[in-house]
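[agent] plan:
  1. take the single chain provided in the ticket
  2. run structure prediction with default settings
  3. attach structure tokens to the ticket
  4. add a short note for the reviewer (M.T.)
[agent] executing step 1
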Amino acid sequence: MDTRWSSTTKLLILICLLLFAAWLTFRFADIIPPLLVAVIVAYLLKPPTDWLVRRTGWPRGLAVIVLFLILLSLIILAPVLITPSVAGILRNIKLDLSALDPIWQRLSGANLQIGPFTLSGGELAPDLNQAVQNMVAPFATGALQLVSGVALSLFYLVFVIVVIFWLLKDSYKLEGWFIDHISPSYQGEVVHLLREIGEIWGNFFRGELALAVVVGSLVALSMWMLGLPNIFLLAFFAALGEFVPTIGPVLAAIPAILIALVNGSSWLHLHPLLLGLIVALVYMLIFQFEQIYLLPRIVGRRVRLHPGVVFVGTIIGATQIGLLGVLIAAPVIATMRLFGGYIYSKMLDREPFAQPAGAEPGGIAWRGMIRGQPVAGILFDLDGTLIDTDDHLIEQIAARLGPLRRLFPDRDPRPAVRHLLLAAEGPINWLITQLDRLHLDDNLFRLHEWLRQVRGYRRTNEMQVIPGVLESVHILHSGYKLALVTTRPRAAAEHFLALTGLQAYFAVVVTADDVQRLKPHPEPLLRAMTQLGLPPEQCVMVGDTTADLLAAQAAGIRAVAVLCGFGRRRELEEADLLLDSTAELTHWL
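[agent] step 2 finished; step 3 output follows
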């Protein structure tokens, strides 16, 4: 019986799914803004997370936690650094409520002459008094609403933090899941689109950072020329205000105006009220200059948009979405332009992207792809990947457990022993790296060699190649650059190459003698890619343990796991490609 859906059924299901998605969007519209904030913050924190993983070799979850702790420390430390300057400002503000009445009376009777115009304090005082009352009234009558608003804000804050954590920790899993659910014929184009989108948003946020530096510098220079103190603190507030759309510049100007009203200028002999107006005018001019001239040119040029388009998009974003719309208007327009160009090319049966350099028209630039990523170089582990393993020592350990075997599923302790030894490889390699600096690693090296034997890694003179591997390496060598990356010493690696006659096939060999840090640290892989002359996005790591997978993830390359070595499917299922044997690699590449 044929259970395939007809075209009509597929169309109906698609319409129902679209309607359901629209209902979800409308029903949970309140959660969309904090979700967008979490996605943006996670995107901003991804580069430092990748850098931390690459430098330390830590698991990604640990790196994210450490990064969160660093950010929390900076948030706590910032008030400590800023407090002395703020305290210096507040010391000059004698806030005495009983003295406000004489000041108010004096202000009511004062007249300010500005050229041909005269401002009467008596006319301004009632309006100011009413404005203050209107501002304070909601706080007096809306205590319950305030408490509920604070609780809701705390909920959204926790929501954003949790989403950021999981996005940073499992971003590569989400990317892999997304690519896997796309037709293989479109995976290359989708990966290219994602890369272009990443460049757009990355350039945008780098432009925002440059904008903050420029505006902060202009504020510092202007306030110094006006003779105001604490110019660096004011510059910091102004730069920070660039990341808070619309109200950020207004909030950044308030401290400067207060300082002008209270302290005055160090060299301009002006009435404090007049100086405050001048400071407000300078801030207004700076931020108008930033909105009209700097923002379209600095940010617009980085996302390759005309300044007028950025300006119009900012206004539309402010009216439709609010603060968030102002912030993300430029990259959203650039992303829409990218999708529009892609759709336009597809509608006219044109190639949406330029062909890679050196590719012939209509030809194939790459022999193989993994999850939409073109592969030009393959990095091989040795033991368990090219060389067969021997499980007799694991069998001996399992046999010695005796009655304890009943505690394991199916009374078979071998998977648990194998998992424990597999988990020990990473920490022991890390300890070897640390103790090597103190010349205390001899005993640990002996423990490491014992673990290798227990895990079935054969001695140098007992190496046996996995069936079908020699033929696969010979085939792959004709289309890819190959590298051997192993934790064995160079003598053992060279013995293997001489024994198998593969010296000419591997352009690069990286051993434990060539690096300071072993896998799962990415240093061996990064060294191999550097010697191959290939970027990470064009390389793939083939290995049989979680250490190989973690090293590949830290180095930013695809990972192929093979089940012909020590690892088992449960430990290696996060790989980009999972094969029963290394010999099957030619079926994919």
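[agent] step 4 note for reviewer: Residues 356-366 have pLDDT under 50 and may be disordered.
[agent] ticket updated
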